[in-house]
Structures are given as C-alpha cells and as structure tokens.
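Regression check, S-adenosylmethionine case 275:
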Amino acid sequence: MTRRPPIVTIVCMETIQANWYEHPRWYDIAFGWDPVTEVDFVEAAFERFADGEVKRVYEPFCGTGRIAIELARRGYLVTGVDLVPGAVEYARLRAREAGVEVELTLGDACAFMPSQPVDAIITLIDSFRLLASAEMAARGAQQFASGLRFGGLLVIGLDIGEKPPLETHEERWTLERAGTRVETRVFAPGRPGKTPGTSIARSILRVTESNGREYELVTDDEMRDYTMGSFRALFEINGDFELLTLTSRKYDLDRPIEPTPDHCGDIVAVFRRRE
Ligand SMILES: C[S@@+](CC[C@H](N)C(=O)[O-])C[C@H]1O[C@@H](n2cnc3c(N)ncnc32)[C@H](O)[C@@H]1O
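Current build output:
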C-alpha cells in the first residue's frame, strides 16, 4: 500500500518593520479593550477634583479615538489630535460608526491646542512619553498649561522609573475582532534611544487575518524616561499645575499611591491648573 504524504500547511509570516500607529486597524484591535473603566475613572476625577463643570475635553495623542469617542458618547465636547494621518482617519471613521461628533485633528501635541480653553486634558497609556526630547516634553506641558482653564484638570497616565530590560518582563495580551486576531507584546529591550534621556519600547503585533494570512509588525518607539521627580517637575516647576492625586493603572481613585522618588511602574496622575 502506498502511503500518502502528510498534509503540511506552510504559513508564511510577513514581518513588517513599521510604526504600528500607521496600521490603525490592527492597532485599534490590539488596544480594543473596553474603555469604560478608564473613562469612568476620568469622570470620577472630574467630579471629585475639578473646579466647576467639565464640558470641553481635549485628548492629545488620541490615536484611533477609543477614549475620545467614549467621552463624546457621554456628552462631552471632545477634541482629539494625533500626528499620524491614518490614525486620525480611522478615529473619524470610528466616531461616525458610533454616531458621535468628535473634532479630530491632524497635528502635533507640542504645538496644537483647541481654539477655546478646555476644562480637562486627558492622555493615558504612556502617550506623553512619545514627546522624546526634553524640549518637546516642555513644549507639550506649556501647551497644556496655555489651553487648560484655571481649575481644569490634566489626567495623565504613563510609566515611570527603571524597569528591568528583559523580554521576560513584557506585557502580553491577545484580542480579536471580526475574525482578525492580534497578539501584542510590549517590552523594553534595554536600549537607549537616539535622543538623550530616552529608551526604546518595542512592540510586536502578531496578526492573523480571517483569511489565515499572518503578519508580524515590529515597532520601536523612542520614549522619554521619567522619574517621579522629573515627571512632577515638568508640570509643577512653573507653578502651572498642582498634583492632586496619583494612582495606578488599576484606575481606582480610592487607592492612591505615594509619590516616592524611586517609584517604578505605571501611574495615573491628576493635576489641576492653578491660577
Ligand atoms: C499610545 S497611542 C495613543 C492611544 C490613545 N490615546 C488611546 O488611549 O488609545 C499614542 C499616539 O500618539 C501619537 N503621537 C505620537 N507623537 C505625537 C505628537 N507629537 N503629537 C500628537 N500625536 C502623537 C501616535 O501617532 C499614536 O497614535
């Protein structure tokens, strides 16, 4: 009897070295968890800490619009800005699909502010660290101070302190939408960036499309490194902002963390604009 050869399926994985923000559909699946916890936290901060009503909200680094769209759903007048055209287009599409109005603009968070003063500025999941040089970060902080009304809030989430530069300390998760599966890994390979005071954060997306094709998208982001001291100084040094509370990415205002100088990990800070 002749033996049949085994059936072998060879899957060719295409590796793409690129900016993951320029692949917004994949990026949006990777970060496609429900933004309700984050936005509930933001609203709780408005209620607890803002002087006066919060109506106008600005989200710099809005990406594909997850937070901006959820805020608009809850009735806020939202402006989002992002540097990458594909991300802004995708966010506009998502807003249309959600049936909400969000003013989504292509621009640089170092230079842009909405035309009218806002009551709150929200920027979560480490985005502010993408302002890689000290000068860019200072310009970003100045822009925030110039466009946020007195008594308004800045809610900013980022990682601070030194993490062990090992792949084993990576964050890894998998999400799926409409047959496309995206496995995400994020870790620090322990390399400094070209800009002084930065390090590289590597993100690897493994995408399996519904037709079985597989892609690997590798992005190295240059991220500004902060200690608790340098982070606070950036916003407090000119007396523009007052730190009200710090918590972790568990988004629980009732579980504040101490702002110790050697703190390492993700934080979410709530500042108020001083007069
Ligand atoms: C981590 S993602 C944002 C995610 C989004 N805020 C969310 O919570 O889902 C960071 C975004 O910042 C954008 N970005 C990077 N540098 C920027 C800059 N200078 N001005 C505006 N956007 C910038 C990137 O294009 C990317 O979409």
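Comparison notes: Residues 6-10 have pLDDT under 50 and may be disordered. The helical segments are 24-30, 36-49, 66-73, 85-98, 134-147, 228-236. No diff flagged against the previous build.
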